[in-house]
């Protein structure tokens, strides 16, 4: 039986407490505790614990899932610790002591300095400058050496057309070779160097070359059902938010520009700098001006981070507004954005980062809102907005925004999640689309007043390639789902009264491809313009199609076949780039389509003059490509007097009333435009 009980924790709290969740300081020293005595389920209830003393015990390691989201000070003196890497689960840790653990060395000091980005004091010494050197200079040098080692010895060993066995073999040889041959720093740090080199090499293979590394140390979890309590807490970092407001204002100049952008591959930006000149627009239909430029997703809060990719944003629904009935009043001026290790909530009008949620080991790809009616005190019910966020780890985080609390997670997939979305009619139904070539429908449940909840898997949709974008059909969101995938555009029947819990696709759509038609193409943009018109973008240069869902799918019913031709209504003129994953969005209430390009510009299409004709039963395809109503050029933006090079627009989203336009880029800049 464990030595640690609820009663013991309450007794050892400083001061004594009556509830676990109220404990902020806890002294568990001199209790002869071993690792097995630290029960993760019991510790997970210490949601507000900030100071923990575990000195003078018999601990040889830390469990990987203690879940102390607010821990700031930890004392582990006089134990038998052999490894420190599990401490990365405490990302807010500021002070750490582990003196008189005979198995720990200087290499372990460097590991914790790298893993814990907020650490200021280690064994009583201020390590801020050294830690910054370890995280930045050391990492930069090692990354350069790892890359050079690949280029010199291994790049030519991997054939252009390679088999899975060849990939496996080259990965194994490279990881072994790079750890042996890449040397940097004193010999006393050789263990730390090998540890970092292996980590950097795995990231290099995975991100730069697309060679997946299965190096997760976490045990495999069942994916059909999850019941979790709190994991991490979102927080508003006051010092960091102050940086957003002040740090770059005197460094950045923003001017409107009509010049053509050069091609180059990097970027720079600012965190919050209001436009100092009015934007001169080339088209007259819409007038919009750049309002804010934010750099709020930086890794480790680094001012030099211009590499973090920003992927997804969605406006928060307004409570008590009949959000599901009237789209014009269904969102606020608050938008959730994600990229890198963080999710941010931004006030579009002021440019203020209201809240920020970080997971040091994650890279977030998608966010989605739902509104849950939850039971609060005295059995009263109240509606609250819940934000779901997911990404590379295949885990969905569930955040109660008003409470600043991540109350749980769903281990949805064993591979990265590309995108997520909630059902507009079933508030607890969440779809997750993953690199495992599956789209899963979850019921996330409704948390009780103690944030206990139970998530269950309702349906699995089998795809033949990786799903990139998903959209529920507006006229029947409980029956059909569309997905743009690496290998085409597909539709599934998602009706839950059918007995089959795992389903293949019901239809694949063919599109024009030069003189022929094809089903095999990457569809990296997908959205509904209205109840029937679908907008989809493929990796074919300059290709955005508008097509009729009902007329296309009805043809399938008549012919009883899975492959059907999309009934094309029009084609939009867009950039001729062959770059993928620059996605599109729509504003149905205003009948607009938005899509960014490879030069930082936003292409806007007002289609209100076309939709009536397309809605008729005999609506014919527009003969000419429809030109953009307006192209918003990226403003001339200078940081420290230097102009950043090419900026890719990964995503661009407007609020339902088209007051604000939020632009997410490849260089860690969120740009907010306002319609004037």
Automatic annotation (TrEMBL):
WD repeats (start-end): 410-444
Principal location class: nucleus
Organism: Pitta sordida (Hooded pitta)
Domain Leucine-rich repeat and WD repeat-containing protein 1 LRR: 7-200
Domain Leucine-rich repeat and WD repeat-containing protein 1 WD: 286-675
Keyword Cytoplasm: yes
InterPro entries tied to this protein: Leu-rich_rpt, LRR_dom_sf, LRR_LRWD1_dom, LRWD1, WD40/YVTN_repeat-like_dom_sf, WD40_repeat_CS, WD40_repeat_dom_sf, WD40_rpt
Localisation: Chromosome, Centromere, Kinetochore; Chromosome, Telomere; Cytoplasm, Cytoskeleton, Microtubule organizing center, Centrosome; Nucleus
Keyword check for Chaperone: no
Protein's name in the database: Leucine-rich repeat and WD repeat-containing protein 1
Keyword set, alphabetical order: Centromere, Chromatin regulator, Chromosome, Cytoplasm, Cytoskeleton, DNA replication, Kinetochore, Leucine-rich repeat, Nucleus, Repeat, Telomere, WD repeat
Annotated segments matching region Disordered: 215-242, 256-286
Family stated for the protein in its record: Belongs to the LRWD1 family.
GO MF entry, a single one: chromatin binding
GO biological process annotation, one example: establishment of protein localization to chromatin
GO cellular component: centrosome; chromosome, telomeric region; kinetochore; nuclear origin of replication recognition complex
Bias-annotated ranges (Acidic residues): 215-241
Name of the encoding gene: Lrwd1
């Amino acid at each position: 039986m464990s030595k640690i009980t609820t009663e013991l924790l309450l007794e050892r709290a400083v001061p004594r407490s009556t509830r676990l969740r109220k404990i902020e300081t806890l002294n568990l020293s001199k209790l002869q505790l071993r690792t097995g005595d630290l029960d993760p389920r019991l510790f997970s209830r210490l949601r507000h614990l900030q100071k923990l003393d575990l000195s003078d015990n018999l601990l040889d390691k830390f469990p990987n899932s203690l879940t102390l989201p607010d821990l700031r000070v930890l004392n582990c003196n006089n134990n038998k610790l052999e490894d420190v890497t599990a401490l990365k689960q405490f990302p807010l840790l500021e002070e750490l002591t582990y003196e008189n653990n005979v198995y720990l060395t200087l290499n372990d000091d460097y590991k914790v300095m790298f893993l814990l980005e907020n650490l200021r004091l280690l064994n009583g010494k201020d390590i801020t400058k050294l830690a910054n050197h370890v995280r930045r200079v050391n990492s930069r040098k090692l990354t350069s050496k790892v890359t050079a080692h690949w280029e010199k010895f291994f790049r030519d060993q991997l054939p252009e057309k390679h088999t899975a066995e060849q990939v496996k073999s080259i990965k194994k040889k490279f990881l072994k070779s790079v750890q042996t041959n890449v040397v940097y720093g004193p010999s006393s740090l050789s263990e730390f160097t090998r540890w970092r080199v292996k980590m950097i090499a795995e990231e290099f293979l995975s991100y730069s070359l697309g060679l997946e590394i299965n190096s997760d140390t976490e045990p495999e979890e069942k994916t059909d059902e999850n019941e979790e309590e709190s994991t991490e807490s979102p927080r508003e970092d006051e010092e960091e938010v102050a940086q957003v407001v002040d740090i770059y204002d005197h460094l950045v100049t923003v001017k409107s520009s009509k010049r053509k952008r050069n091609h180059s591959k990097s970027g720079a930006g600012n965190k919050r700098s209001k436009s100092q000149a009015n934007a001169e627009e080339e088209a007259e239909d819409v007038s919009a001006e750049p309002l804010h430029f934010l750099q709020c997703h930086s890794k480790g809060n680094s001012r030099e981070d211009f590499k973090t990719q920003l992927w997804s944003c969605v406006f928060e629904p307004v409570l008590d507004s009949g959000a599901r009935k009237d789209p014009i009043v269904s969102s606020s001026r608050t938008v959730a954005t994600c990229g890198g290790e963080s999710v941010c909530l931004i006030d579009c009008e002021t440019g203020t980062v209201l809240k920020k949620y970080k997971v040091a080991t994650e890279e977030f790809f998608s966010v989605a809102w739902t509104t849950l009616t939850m039971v609060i005190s005295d059995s009263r019910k109240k509606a609250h907005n819940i934000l779901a966020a997911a990404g590379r780890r295949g885990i969905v985080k569930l955040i109660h925004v008003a409470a600043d609390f991540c109350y749980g997670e769903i281990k949805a997939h064993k591979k990265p999640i590309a995108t997520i979305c909630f059902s507009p009619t079933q508030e607890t139904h969440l779809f997750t689309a993953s690199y495992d070539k599956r789209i899963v429908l979850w019921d996330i449940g409704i948390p009780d007043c103690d944030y206990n909840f139970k998530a269950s898997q309702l349906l699995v949709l089998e795809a033949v390639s990786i799903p990139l974008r998903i959209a529920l059909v507006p006229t029947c969101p409980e029956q059909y789902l569309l997905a743009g995938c690496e290998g085409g555009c597909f539709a599934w029947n998602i009706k839950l009264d059918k007995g089959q819990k795992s389903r293949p696709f019901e239809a694949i759509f063919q599109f024009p491809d030069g003189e022929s038609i094809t089903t095999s193409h990457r569809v990296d943009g997908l959205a509904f313009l209205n109840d029937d018109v679908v907008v989809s973008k493929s990796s074919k240069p300059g290709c955005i199609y508008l097509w009729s869902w009902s007329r296309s799918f009805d043809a399938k019913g008549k012919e009883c076949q899975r492959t059907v031709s999309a009934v094309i209504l029009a084609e939009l003129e867009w950039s001729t780039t062959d770059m993928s994953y620059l996605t599109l969005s729509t504003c149905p209430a205003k009948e607009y389509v938005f899509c960014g390009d490879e030069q930082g510009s936003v292409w806007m299409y007002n289609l209100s003059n076309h939709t009536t004709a397309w809605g008729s039963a005999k609506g014919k395809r527009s003969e000419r490509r429809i030109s953009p109503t307006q192209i918003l050029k990226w403003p001339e933006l200078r940081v420290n007097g230097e102009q950043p090079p090419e900026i890719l627009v990964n995503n661009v989203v407007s609020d339902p009333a088209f007051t604000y336009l939020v632009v997410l880029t490849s260089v860690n800049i969120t740009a907010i435009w306002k319609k004037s």
